Structures are given as C-alpha cells and as structure tokens.
C-alpha cells in the first residue's frame, strides 16, 4: 500500500510538472528558414518544466534571462546552432555540443566554459555586449575557427589568452576600449589569417612574443599608435595592413617603408608625427596673420584720431607685429 501511494505521488508530480511547464514552439516554418524562431523566453521556474522545439538551429529574440543556465541549455536537446539577439542575457552557459553560438545586443558580461568538457564549437560571436575581459577558459575551445568580440568594453589584451587555438583563422576585437596589447608568454596561432584591432585606444602594441606564421591581414586603424616594432619580422606572411587614423612616428614609418619595399598592400601610412606638426605650424601662421590684420586696423584708427594727414603705416605695423610675436 505504501509503495503504491509513493508511485501515485510520483506520477501526480510528473503530471503537474508537465501541465504547468512552459512549452515554446517555432514561430515560423523552420524547414523554410535556417532557424526556428522563438521569442520572449523568460527565466525558468524551478518547480516547472521548460520545453523547446527539437530543432538543430534555434534563434531566441526578446528573451529576458539573468542567466542562460546549463539546465535551460539542455532543454534544447538537439540544438547545434544557437543565435540570441536583442535580448537581456547577462550570463550564459556554453553547451559543449554547440557548433555555432552567437549572442548579440544582450548586455552579456559573462560566459561559462566548462573546461572538463570537450567542446565542438567552431564559431563564437559575442558582439555588442558588455564584456570587460576575455572569457575565462576561451582557449579551451580548441575547434574554434572564428571569434568575434567586437563592440564590447575590453580595456587591455593579453594575447596569451588565445594560445592553443590552433584552428583559429579570424579574430575580431574592433570597437573596444583596448589601450595596451601584449603577451605574457609565447603565443602561437598558426592558422590565424585576419586580426582586427581597429577602433580602439591602443597606444602600445608588443608583438615580440607572437608566432602568427599565417597572418595575412592586420587592421590597426583608428588607434593612438606611433610604432609597431619588428612587424615584418614577426609576421612574415603579412600582405595587407590598415594603418589609418594613427600618429605614426616619422622615423619609424620611413624605416618600415624602406624594409617593406612595396611587398605589402598598405592603407593610411602617409600621415606621421612630422606631418601633424606641420599642420600645427600652418594653423599658428594663420592665427598670426589674423593678429597682424587686427593690429593694423587698431593702429590706423589711433592715427586717424590724432591727425587728418594720410600716413603709410605699413612699416610701423610690421615692426610692432614682429615685436609682439617675438615676445619683445
């Protein structure tokens, strides 16, 4: 009797869990689209069951989750591609079975990577979020070919955090607030083809410990760089560089151009610190001419008040003007 009561109790709990749980469904015809679209997912209730469609590709939008937990992830049993955008997801667990994971415009500031697991992920897209550092354990995702961390709040970059990602071909770090790029140890990214560091605040970039033997394209435009030492020696396969929007040291630039000998496609290495100084001199000269013009008008008005005779004031103006700008 006791055993039957216990079994009845279990069955009743299972029935309640099934009936009160949240069941999401595709809002489109997934056979006609790449993704099954699911909207407005909210935090799971511990006593109830949440179910998702058994699709391999799911896109969540307008979700509101403080945490996308491991439990919720595994309630998407077949998902291999997961795309979340225009939502609120502060913390996300990375399911090892995923091959593609994208979280965009979600205020994400943390991602959980279980280093005890073997991950299948090949593409990780986390743009337009609130990450302040490289996710811990990122270099455990050894199948990655693409990482996009653009438009976040990264302030410094230790390239050693990517060490071990031997299949990585594209690394996007543009539109952050990075000031310093360095490496606390040797970094080997043998498959990396494109590195994007554009639109940061980089003023120091140490590549002396980089071993990026396949890197073909580098974008460091719109930063505060004056030089990148040993660029050609450290990156022997480099073919395209965007230098624009920096303040390159002229001596470094001239030496680099001489060594490159036209072997690279380069953008934006015309301007250098000397050119900036010349622009400053031109502006100063224009200001001096404005002072001289105002001085001539003032002296002319004073003389007119003293006499009605016409006078050539050119020499007087020149003499007073020169004394002013020379500080006499």
From TrEMBL:
Gene3D superfamilies documented for this protein: Ribonuclease Inhibitor
Record-linked Pfam families: LRR_8
Keywords assigned by UniProt, alphabetized: Leucine-rich repeat, Repeat, Signal
Superkingdom of this protein's organism: Eukaryota
Protein name, per record: Uncharacterized protein
Species annotation: Aedes aegypti
């Amino acid at each position: 009797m006791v055993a039957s009561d216990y079994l009845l109790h279990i069955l009743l709990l299972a029935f309640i869990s099934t009936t009160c749980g949240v069941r999401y469904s595709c809002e489109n015809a997934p056979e006609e689209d790449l993704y099954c679209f699911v909207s407005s997912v909210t935090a799971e209730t511990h006593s109830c069951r949440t179910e998702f469609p058994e699709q391999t590709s799911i896109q969540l939008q307008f979700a509101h989750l403080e945490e996308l937990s491991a439990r919720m992830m595994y309630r998407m049993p077949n998902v291999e591609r997961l795309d979340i955008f225009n939502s609120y997801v502060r913390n996300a667990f990375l399911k090892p079975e995923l091959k593609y994971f994208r979280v965009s415009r979600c205020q994400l500031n943390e991602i959980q990577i279980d280093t005890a697991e073997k991950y299948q992920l090949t593409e990780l897209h986390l743009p337009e979020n609130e990450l302040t550092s490289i996710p811990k354990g990122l270099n455990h995702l050894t199948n990655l070919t693409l990482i996009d961390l653009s438009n976040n709040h990264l302030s410094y970059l230790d390239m050693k955090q990517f060490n071990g990602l031997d299949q990585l071909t594209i690394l996007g770090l543009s539109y952050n607030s990075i000031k310093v790029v360095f490496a606390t140890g040797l970094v080997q990214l043998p498959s990396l083809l494109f590195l994007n560091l554009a639109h940061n605040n980089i003023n120091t970039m140490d590549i002396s410990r980089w071993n990026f033997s396949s890197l073909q394209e580098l974008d460091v435009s719109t930063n505060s760089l004056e030089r990148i030492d040993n660029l050609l020696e450290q990156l022997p396969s480099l073919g395209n560089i965007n230098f624009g929007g920096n303040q390159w040291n002229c001596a470094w630039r001239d030496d680099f151009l001489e060594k490159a000998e036209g072997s690279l496609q380069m953008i934006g290495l015309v301007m250098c610190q000397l050119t900036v100084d010349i622009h400053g001199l031109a502006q100063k000269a224009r200001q001096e001419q404005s002072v001289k013009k105002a001085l001539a008008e003032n002296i002319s008005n004073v003389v007119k008040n003293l006499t009605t005779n016409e006078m050539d004031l050119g020499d007087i103006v020149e003499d007073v003007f020169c004394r002013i700008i020379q500080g006499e």
